[in-house]
Design brief:
2 copies of one chain form a homodimer. Chain A is of the alpha+beta class and 335 residues long. Chain A contains 13 helices and 12 strands. In chain A, helix 5 packs parallel to helix 7. The interface between A and B is large, with 50 and 50 residues. Chains A, B: This is Asparaginase.
Chain lengths: 335, 335
């Protein structure tokens, strides 16, 4: 099976580049209500599944013990831009557990976002692990370990009890077996497991509905999803696509991106779960795809639908502000 | 016709993302000696054809009148990183023509390269048009206009005599008709024309060999290509792929990238011309493709071939330096 062209990039009157991709929407019972492309092929969710990876933080009682509210939980599910607020909140999470950034195993990098990077360059000698886009997730990991009585050192490795627990959680949610065979190493050094895109969508549907989950897991899932929707800045950052998507319909859209062209989203009230992957790994295509799929589920003419369609199909301007072309989704996503 | 998968990106034991592309190699007579994918489809060369666009600067006598050497000519063909040396040289080119940056029509942007951007953020309030990656090309345009007695204002527009001359040059070189129908606007506001990839390759082959060109054009072409090979830093910048490719075999490889996954290259002594386009616009794929195609034409076991293959197929490391996967070309490029 081939992945269809889902996004085109035009220039003048011509298509300059095109992206292929896979996409799936499942309902609250996990039934596929829309699909395109290889939705059964193993796909690394990368950071798109951070809300799943944050479950031990809540299920263990660590989040309550350390007094975490929606912001801390959102940051634990985030791929943030390394803005001052993100780094400061990660530091404060670690402090609640009596730790500091030296315990983080994610490595350090400058922000991927130009305005944030310019600010960092002007205020920092160099970035620390707190500025890593995954520092919130890692801080959550450390807090879960400390509260559970596990030595945090090595928390990022396959055999650490935290990663074993995350593996069990993700098997429970996605229905896929996770082993060394479908395991890769993520940018922040933790294991990432390739699962069918439809399994990833079903896992998020379970998080939204709680169907088939133990009560503690169902409650923790609901709390994490609601935290992200309540604090979208802490899930990504200024002008980031995840943040903007969730701001379209506050409290009604959950969205999370992952590297290499992955995007997951939920309309929790409708029990609908969305997952897309751009075959070539392009974020611009994954963004258009997820926005277009979400738009279908808002009323024609509604501000939410119009806002989502404007994020799916948008013009490109050059350094002088001239319109040079468009990014647009193909009919595949509206069939 | 479909474009084949030419580059794969792996993680762990799996392929995480894949890129499709088209590629063509022609000999000094313009004969296709290798091809893959849609090489007759209209393709915007974008910045890959800057050496063609720089011909009026040399052919008009402006380059000699203003005393330009290899560095200035290389910068006129460049997509540079906005490093201090690039901006300073563009300013000095304009000064020779009695102009300054206020005449540039390319717009301003921060560097696309992280180290250069960090340096800019720490030393500039904001970037000027001199830091635009196209400022060398635009400075060359202004110099060509001034020497030719054309008012530079509007030099970036379709109907300006400079763009009309560039259009005629590119038709001569590529064999394609250039009109409003296949014209788009480039990032720096000048017209860009979609031509078959094989036509682009033939155009560069003519620049390398001079075959079928007027003597003035043949000489100017040779001078520009040699200037780029002599000053690869001024064609791109520190650690940039174009610069690194040309440093593999000094004076024997010409290479130039373009936005949306285009790359052109020459082995001038062999009269071989290479052009690739990644269907989805990814630079990482275009880079691997062009390096792999070039490698085939160096002796097995030679340092040049090994260096090029190492640029085509390379490992990816995360923030902690762990090996997480590889970028590798497929057999399509070695068939």
């Amino acid at each position: 099976m081939e992945n269809p062209v889902t996004v085109e990039v035009t220039r003048g009157k011509l298509v300059e580049s095109r992206h292929r991709g896979m996409a799936v929407v499942v309902d609250g019972d996990g039934k596929v209500v829309f699909s395109a492309g290889e939705i059964e092929a193993p796909t690394f969710p990368r950071s798109a599944c951070k809300a799943m990876q944050a479950l031990p933080l809540v299920e263990s009682g660590a989040a309550d013990a350390y007094g975490f509210g929606a912001r801390e939980l959102a940051l634990a599910c985030s791929s943030h831009s390394g803005e001052d607020e993100h780094a400061a909140l990660a530091a404060s999470m670690l402090k609640r557990a009596g730790r500091d950034e030296s315990v983080l195993e994610c490595g350090a990098h400058w922000s991927f976002e130009q305005p944030a990077l310019i600010h960092q360059a002007r205020t920092l000698d160099k970035p620390s692990a707190l500025h890593n886009n995954c520092s919130g997730k890692h801080s959550g990991f450390v807090c879960a370990c400390c509260h559970s009585g596990w030595e945090p050192k090595g928390y990022s490795t396959y055999d650490h009890p935290l990663q074993a627990e995350i593996r069990a959680i993700m098997e429970d949610l996605t229905g896929a077996a996770l082993t060394h065979d479908n395991c890769g190493t993520d940018g922040c050094s933790i294991p990432t497991y390739a699962v069918p895109l439809v399994g990833l969508a079903r896992g998020f549907a379970r998080m939204a509905t709680g169907k088939g989950l133990e009560p503690v897991r169902a409650a923790a899932s609901k709390r994490l999803i609601e935290a992200c929707m309540a604090e979208p800045f802490y899930v990504a950052g200024t002008k980031r696509f995840c943040t903007r998507l969730m701001e379209v319909a506050p409290g009604r859209i959950f969205a999370k991106t992952g590297a290499e062209g992955v995007f997951c989203a939920l309309l929790p009230q409708q029990g609908l779960s969305f997952a897309v992957k751009c075959e070539d790994g392009a974020s611009r295509a994954a963004e258009s795809m997820i926005a277009a799929l979400l738009a279908r589920h808002f009323d024609p003419g509604s501000p939410e639908r119009e806002a989502l369609l404007a994020m799916a199909n948008h013009s490109m301007r050059n350094w002088n502000g001239l319109h040079v072309g468009d990014v647009r989704v193909t009919d595949v996503l509206f069939s």
